[in-house]
Design a protein that fits this description.
alpha/beta; Aminopeptidase; 5 helices; 31% helix; globular; binds zinc ion
């Protein structure tokens, strides 16, 4: 591929200012359920919840306020394309972390150097800290090619998103880090609901 056609995935898909709102970018959030029905990701110690099942419940609970899609038909890129076609410009794929059952904390992954996404990742983590003060904040992880979640983030960008975030707001394999889905759903509506 010629260098001049190579795109920079750390940049918004559309130039800021091309949204008809002058220079102020306004996120319109879309929610992506992580993993798939067949392979649901990490699970709670009692195997009652997978990342997929948790995400699906959140998506349906918040469906009136946050458009959502899942990866069952065409993966992250196709889900992103459908959400962008539905008017979204900012996407959040809502994973949970897992590590041997004892680690805690919230982190948000972005493509390295993606300043617009970093800004919204900061906002979400700040709001999370306010609402869940007893939950540790692991911070923003700027991922490079080959890193955790990088391919998902690029798929969101290639699907047309300006802001691409992959959240891991708690460890699903640690009961001490668990957040009740109803409480978590309300938190997301507060920070990304199109209300
Ligand atoms: Zn996951």
């Amino acid at each position: 591929m010629l260098e001049c056609f190579k795109r920079d995935d750390s940049k918004p898909t559309n130039d800021i200012g091309s949204h008809g709102e002058g220079e102020s970018f306004k996120p319109k959030w879309g929610y992506i359920v992580p993993h798939t029905k067949k392979a649901g990701g990490a699970e709670t110690p009692d195997n009652k919840w997978s990342e997929y099942q948790y995400g699906k419940v959140i998506a349906i609970t918040n469906g009136e306020f946050i458009p959502w899609d899942d990866r069952n038909h065409g993966g992250v890129k196709a889900a992103s394309q459908r959400l962008v076609a539905n008017g979204c410009n900012s996407l959040f794929e809502d994973h949970k972390n897992a590590y041997r059952g004892f680690t805690r904390g919230a982190e948000v992954l972005v493509i390295r150097g993606d300043e617009l996404s970093v800004k919204y990742a900061e906002f979400i983590l700040e709001e999370f800290k306010k609402q869940f003060p007893d939950h540790p904040i692991r911070g923003i992880k700027q991922m490079k090619k080959g890193g955790r979640g990088y391919a998902n983030l690029v798929a969101m960008k290639r699907g047309g998103a300006d802001v691409a975030l992959l959240g891991e707001m708690f460890f699903i394999d640690n009961v001490k880090d668990w957040i009740d889905p109803e409480v978590y759903a309300k938190f997301l509506v507060r920070v990304m609901g199109n209300v």
